């Protein structure tokens, strides 16, 4: 039985209703299940906003403050932007993987996790993990370090990208309404990107916005493909596969690769050792990893309950929650300057969310359903 579903016969017995009410009771159960899925997907966006804030805090504490400081600890510009970005993503996803494995052990699901690795859905999840983890997540953190929270609404383009990918490769529906929604998202992106033309714009903001598109592309692909895997396996098992794969690939493959590009492969073990033994930053990586675990697991669960399109749009509200929690955690609590967004960025985030909503849902259908419920 799918989690959250109430068997019709049981519902009838508990409600004391005759058999003629089977259909109405089933509709009520399905509607409750759907609404729960929407709530779960919205919570995933909130958790992602918290993850964004705390991973940024982590990468400014302890040894990270020295690496990003004025003397840069002797590191090259390439190393500071790309090597440290991959390292931060890898440590966060590894911390998230440890949380996931611990929860799987506590719930007695660790054997299911190991068994699923050899199945076709498990292999699909591993592929999604590589696209959405080492590639997209590393791009997200690099963009966040380059340009700040202004890139978060850009990465929220992933539902629009997912709709296009689904139409091209999976022959999913892409009608005029969805096309208008995608156009609105692109307009919002231009509004956000216009900040890079400002005199006061931080150095590297335009590059950060471009890299943010890589994250959006990766998550758009993941949102399309991962649905196949989560239909056939438990979402908690799926997210454990994702986080373990992402953490290992980031630290064991991506990290040495970018260090080779930086001209010193020995940087990988040196920087990793310093980062893992740094208490202040690891404390916040533990928090960000926990938030990331629930951001992705609730996203997967919400998608399976209310549909991928609507699940992605509800999760896409992190275009607001990300800058909001960065402002609260970094700006208000830690007293760091520069986390207040310009009004146009907040407006663009709202416009983008409207575009994402238009892609996922027909407003006329929502209006008709709300009218029927009130009748």
What's the overall average pLDDT, rounded? 80
N-end to C-end Cα span: 32 Å
Q: Low-confidence segments, ≥5 residues, pLDDT <50? A: 1-6
Beta strand count: 0
Task: Assess the beta-strand content as a share of residues.
Answer: under 5%
Q: What portion of residues is helical?
A: over 70%
Q: Count helical runs.
A: 17
Oligomer: single chain
What is the count of structural domains?
1
**Biggest β-sheet strands, sense, barrel:** none
SS-based class: mainly alpha
Strand/helix succession: HHHHHHHHHHHHHHHHH
Radius of gyration based on Cα positions: 22 Å
Q: Label the overall shape.
A: globular
SSE layout:
Layout: H1 8-15, H2 22-58, H3 63-67, H4 77-106, H5 110-116, H6 120-147, H7 152-155, H8 158-169, H9 176-193, H10 205-232, H11 235-261, H12 267-276, H13 279-306, H14 308-315, H15 318-333, H16 343-360, H17 363-374
Helix pairs in contact: 1-2, 2-13, 2-14, 2-15, 4-6, 4-11, 4-12, 4-13, 5-11, 6-10, 6-11, 8-10, 9-16, 10-13, 11-12, 11-13, 13-14, 14-16
Structure description:
The structure is a single chain. This protein is mainly alpha-helical. The chain has one domain. The N terminus is likely disordered.
Features:
375 residues
Can you give me a brief rundown of this structure?
The chain has 375 residues and is an all-alpha fold. Helices cover 79% and strands 0% of the residues.
């Amino acid at each position: 039985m799918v989690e959250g579903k109430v068997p019709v016969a049981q519902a009838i017995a508990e409600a004391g209703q005759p058999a003629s009410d089977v259909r109405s009771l089933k509709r009520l159960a399905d509607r409750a299940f759907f609404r729960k899925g929407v709530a779960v997907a919205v919570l995933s966006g909130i958790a992602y906003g918290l993850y964004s804030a705390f991973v940024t805090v982590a990468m400014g504490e302890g040894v990270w403050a020295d690496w990003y400081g004025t003397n840069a600890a002797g590191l090259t510009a390439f190393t500071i932007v790309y090597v440290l970005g991959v390292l931060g993503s890898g440590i966060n996803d590894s911390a998230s993987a440890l949380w996931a494995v611990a929860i799987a052990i506590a719930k007695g699901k660790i054997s299911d996790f190991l068994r699923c690795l050899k199945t076709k859905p498990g292999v699909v999840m591993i592929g999604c993990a590589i696209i959405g983890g080492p590639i997209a997540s590393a791009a997200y953190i690099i963009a966040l370090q380059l340009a700040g929270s202004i890139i978060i609404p850009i990465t929220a383009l992933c539902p629009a990208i997912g709709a296009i990918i689904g139409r091209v490769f999976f022959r999913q529906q892409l009608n005029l309404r969805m096309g208008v929604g995608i156009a609105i998202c692109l307009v919002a992106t231009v509004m956000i990107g216009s900040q890079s033309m400002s005199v006061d714009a931080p150095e590297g903001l335009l590059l950060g916005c471009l890299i943010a598109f890589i994250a959006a592309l990766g998550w758009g692909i993941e949102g399309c493909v991962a649905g196949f895997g989560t239909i056939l396996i438990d979402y908690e098992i799926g997210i454990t596969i994702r986080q373990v794969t992402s953490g290992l690939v980031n630290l064991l493959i991506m990290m040495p690769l970018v260090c080779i590009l930086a001209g010193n492969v020995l940087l990988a073990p040196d920087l990793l050792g310093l980062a893992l033994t740094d208490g202040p930053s690891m404390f916040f990586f533990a928090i960000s990893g926990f938030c990331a675990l629930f951001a992705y697991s609730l996203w997967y669960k919400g998608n399976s309950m209310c549909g991928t399109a609507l699940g992605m749009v509800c999760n896409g509200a992190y275009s607001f929650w990300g800058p909001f929690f960065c402002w609260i955690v970094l700006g208000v609590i830690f007293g760091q300057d520069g986390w207040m967004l310009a009004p146009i960025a907040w407006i663009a985030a709202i416009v983008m969310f409207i575009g994402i909503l238009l892609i996922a849902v027909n407003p006329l259908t929502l209006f008709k359903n709300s009218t029927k419920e009130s009748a």
